[in-house]
Amino acid sequence: MLFKRRKNLDFRERLWTLIWPRRSIWRSLQYYVKRTLRLTATPHAIAAGVAAGVFSSITPFLGFHFLIALAVAWIVRGNLIAAAIGTSFGNPLTFPFIWGATLELGRLILYRGDATPLAGQDLGDVLLHLEFAKLWEPILKPMTVGSLPLGLAIALVFYFVTRWAALAFREERRRRLAERARRRAAAQAGAPAGAS
Q: I need a labelling partner for 130 at 20 to 30 A (CA). Which of 40, 151, 180, 191 fits?
């Protein structure tokens, strides 16, 4: 197989690579940014796709983030690949903050801050038996309500930042290509008449 590893990773090494990228988190983030900006779509489509992915990753419906992102991106005419990349906003490092913020915001919106506190023992029992009806009212309903305004606000920020970055990236690329063409034309003009 082409590009196969000489030494296969054991389970512990594969798990560590899944949690902590081999090169670094910063390099992985740069890869995703450049991959997104190089998509062949309009800056609006790229930005709308990323915003759709970010919005969907703030919802509490794990396992459905890609489907939600693709549906929202299709509605707002966003790029579907950019939407898939945008869902990486929700990851094991950001989920605790997202879930805490959406739960508290949802409880504030629904109950005006007068909600009964969550009982730890009951919550563990409900999660153990996966009783959706008992899980909806105290947790999922407030998280869903809280994710809508929070997701919309964060998605708008990502939309404008991504649109600006896509426009700047294309302008810089256009400038580099023009400079390269100018140098090539100058080199050909300076070449002897018989050379090709």
A: 151
How remote is the C-alpha of 1 from its chain's centroid?
Answer: 31
- Which residues form the domain of 112? 23-161
Residue at 33 is within a domain: yes
Total number of domains constituting the chain: 1
Distance of CA 38 to the CA centre of its chain: 16
Q: Which of 57, 74, 71, 67 is nearest to 158 (CA)?
A: 57
Positions in the chain whose pLDDT score sits under 50 = 1
Per-residue pLDDT reduced to its tens digit, 150-195: 999 999 999 999 899 888 888 888 888 888 888 888 888 876 655 5
Question: Does residue 195 fall inside a structural domain?
Answer: no
Answer yes or no: is 183 within a domain: no
Does 3 fall in a domain? no
C-alpha 21/C-alpha 24 separation (Å) is 5
Residue 62 per-residue DSSP state: T
